[in-house]
Amino acid sequence: MSATLKGRAGLPPLPAELANRAVFPDDRGYAMVRSSYMAAGSPAVVIMATTADEVAAAVRYAADAQGPDGERLPVAVRSGGHGIAGTSTNHGGIIIDLSRLDAVDLDPDAHRVRAQAGAGWGKVSTVLAPHDLTITSGNFGDTGVGGLATAGGVGYFARSQGLTIDRVRAAQLVTADGRVRWVDAEHEPDLFWAVRGGGTHVGIVTEVELEPTRMNTRSGDASIIYQEVGYAVTDLGAFTQAWGEWIDGAPRAAEGFLMLNATGSGRTIVRARNVWAGDDTAAATPVLEAALGLGQVFEQQAFITPYPQIVPSPGQPHLGQQAIRMRDVLVDRADAEVGRAMAQALADRTTLLGEIRALGGAVSDVDPSATAWAGRHQRALVGTWLRPAGTVAEDASFAPLQQLGTGTYAAYSSDVRPASAELAWPGDTGTRLRALSEQVDPEGLFTQGHSLRRR
User: Fold this and answer.
1) How many domains does the chain have?
2) What is the pLDDT of residue 10?
3) What is the spatial distance between Cα 45 and Cα 221, in angstroms, rounded to a whole number?
4) What family does this belong to (predicted)?
5) Do 85 and 188 fall into the same domain?
């Protein structure tokens, strides 16, 4: 490895503490770090930081580095590398990679866990489960702590625990001036507000302290009841109405995700993943049995399992292998209108499949002004997976659902245009978040991807 950017005339040398952390295009191993899961990249350098101080040094370096014509280089930040928009890599720029910051330390007596940004949520769940503890997260274990714990976190315990950001009690943050800060409700509370739902608007989160939830299971290993149901649906509007009423009326321990595929014969195959937070079969059975009455069932299974078993962590290298595009909106409720709009979207040849995730419950308990996630009243996330057919075709395919959206989960969308950011951080939330971003990052170092800042 070199102490300078090879072949990039006029760029400054790397500081001494980063000389052995940089991977360049002609270095062995570059192919394994150049890309994310969602996009292939060709960065000028990938800085594999191992401490918060090294992240700070990388930030200072990135702020000063210029291209051969004096242009600012794009800067990407990567924790798990699963960002849907693919903006954790770039072409010709700098990547600050946090994957080596992957420690997870639990203090069960204090009811706190510290997790570094590069750790996957599968690792977090594995550390917590033997103590009968969980933290709501996404549904894939390789997703990085740094992305999920700052963006939102719509997981299998959303209705019972809220979003992942609602469990964050403190965060270590590196701002654009290269300072390392610990922020919480008492120390720099404005920045603490921003990192919970504001993504990278105010810097790079390198570590979070979270409060897990005790499951109180008989087994003591954070077991949950997991149900999968396959439905053959001929009237998606009626089915979605029934499903929405079922999940809204269910106890908060119940959570439901739907994956939807059009068959081309007027039917939709709907696969439901239902989770009961805990192993209380007496309480769960009537609720899960009611789910079987929502439509024509062609297969179903239910079992008790420790939570880590349903957040798989394959640990595959990231080579830009997932070429799909994704869109989502938050809707006030999952009802017949949403179902009919989903049927229209699924009928478009650009759409591969649809998705509906239940919100509400503990998510809605939080005041909309308490964090930078403003979507507290909506009771469902609705999205589609798309062929990469270009913006015009993708917009057209998602249009029936887009018009019903009253918000969006930015981190679950490939759309990084300003209108999407304004839907994710609307009104007073957006005004406050933009002002904080301009205050701590006046030069716009962290404006790649989903950002309220004009670029």
Assistant:
1) 2
2) 45
3) 42
4) Belongs to the oxygen-dependent FAD-linked oxidoreductase family.
5) no
Are the C-beta atoms of 367 and 418 separated by less than 8 Å? no
With beta carbons less than 8 A apart as the criterion, state whether 383 and 334 touch: no
| Non-local CB neighbours of 101 within 8 Å, separated by 6+ positions | 49, 50, 51, 52, 55, 116, 117, 118, 119, 206, 207
Among candidates 66, 79, 91, 50, which has minimal Cα distance to 11?
A: 66
pLDDT at 157 > cutoff 70: yes
- CB-based contact 351:345 (threshold 8 Å): yes
Q: Domain for residue 426, yes or no?
A: no
CA angle 144, 417, 76 (to 5 degrees): 40
Q: Are strands 296-306 and 180-184 parallel, antiparallel or unpaired?
A: unpaired
Q: Are 92 and 144 in the same domain?
A: no
Helical pair 336-347 and 236-249, crossing angle rounded to 10 deg: 130
Neighbours of 316 (CB within 10 A): 9
Q: What is the pTM of this model?
A: 0.95
- Residue spans of alpha helices (H) in 183-235: 189-195
The residue behind tokens 């930040």 is 77
Amino acid (one-letter) located at 221: D
User: Which one of 43, 69, 97 terminates a domain?
Assistant: 97
Burial of 267 (0-12, 13-18, 19+ CB in 10 A): middle
